[in-house]
Design a protein that fits this description.
329 residues, four-stranded antiparallel beta sheet, globular, mainly beta
């Protein structure tokens, strides 16, 4: 596949936009800045460190965690710098910064004017979800939740927040009512340190919401678990360290990573789909292809390997250091 390292004076930036494509979030190394890789599936074109290329070499900062697009704006969460960088969704030029966070993780719009940002707290234990006015770029409220809140899953007027434990242990998913911005319930996830929440439809068309638990790393034998949040956390035992639970486009199965493999989940079983070391996973909502982010040694450039829904390898492209999240537009 073609790859390029474009400079800011390249005419590309005056004729092309980034309203469609794949964005890879690279956390970066402990001694450097995280980056964003852009990939165009149609042409195979790859642009490394897109933010620096467009913004005169500017760095995002330490530990870029996630990116979310909403109303043609991009919100880049930079965990180590305790900020969210706002970029134009077409040009990727920086237009603002939201500051005042404590180890922020993920960004989720909840209305036309507001969004939630999960954060671990300065001590990595005092977790909360921050409400942000995306018009003024100001924090307006802090909602206490469990330890280490990670990815958030919207469901009607509720938002499910996976409390991953942070620097400790947790076994719950917080449910926030977006109508009054309060935690209305903290539900048992079935296992320790839930990392993500997703839903799929069973054979009767009923939506089932599950939490993927990484397990207790202090245990002699850590145990992962995929727990049904509507059934007291009962579910399937899985490999420890599972992450990035995501739903297939057709809605009848889910996928996640763990133990050097990608796993498939239906109503009745969890099964290994294919072997692949991955630090991140995402399912293309259009094609159903699976994008696996392989961080390699976490100090040199990683790679994104693309597979079909049946587990067959399709292609790959280079990413930055420690790629973790893959986002489709």
């Amino acid at each position: 596949m073609a790859s390029c390292d474009l400079s800011t004076d390249d005419p590309f930036f005056f004729t092309n936009t980034f309203e469609k494509g794949v964005f890879v979030v690279n956390e970066g190394s402990f001694n450097g800045s995280g980056t964003i890789t852009f990939y165009d599936p149609e042409s195979g074109e790859v642009i490394q460190d897109l933010f620096a290329a467009v913004n005169n070499g500017a760095a995002l900062g330490q530990f870029v965690q996630s990116i979310t697009f909403y109303n043609n704006l991009g919100y880049i969460v930079v965990n180590g710098a305790n900020k969210v960088v706002v970029v134009d969704g077409s040009s990727f030029e920086q237009i603002g910064v939201i500051e005042g966070f404590e180890q922020p993780r993920f960004f989720l719009p909840v209305s036309a004017n507001f969004a939630y940002v999960s954060q671990w707290g300065a001590d990595g234990l005092t977790g909360s979800v921050v409400k942000v006015n995306i018009g003024t770029l100001q924090i307006v409220k802090t909602i206490p939740v469990g330890k280490g809140p990670e990815k958030m899953w919207p469901k009607g007027t509720d938002v499910y927040v996976a409390n991953s434990g942070g620097f400790g242990l947790d076994s719950t998913v917080s449910i926030i009512n977006t109508l009054d911005d309060t935690e209305k319930e903290r539900r048992f996830a079935g296992g320790y340190n839930p990392a993500s929440v997703a839903a799929f439809n069973n054979t009767s068309g009923v939506s089932l919401t599950y939490a993927l638990c990484r397990g207790d790393w202090n245990a002699t034998t850590p145990q992962g678990l995929l727990g049904d949040l509507n059934n007291g956390g009962a579910g399937f035992n899985t490999v420890p360290g599972g992450d990035d639970l995501c739903t297939a486009p057709e809605g009848n199965k889910m996928y996640f990573i763990g133990g050097g493999a990608v796993w498939s989940v239906n109503q009745f079983a969890v099964s290994k789909l294919f072997d692949q070391n991955a630090y991140g996973l995402a399912c293309d909502p259009a094609s159903g292809n699976l994008y696996t982010a392989d961080a390699k040694d976490f100090s040199s450039n990683g790679e994104v390997v693309i597979y079909g829904a049946n587990g067959g390898k399709i292609s790959s492209f280079q990413a930055g250091v420690s790629p973790n999240e893959v986002v489709f537009r």
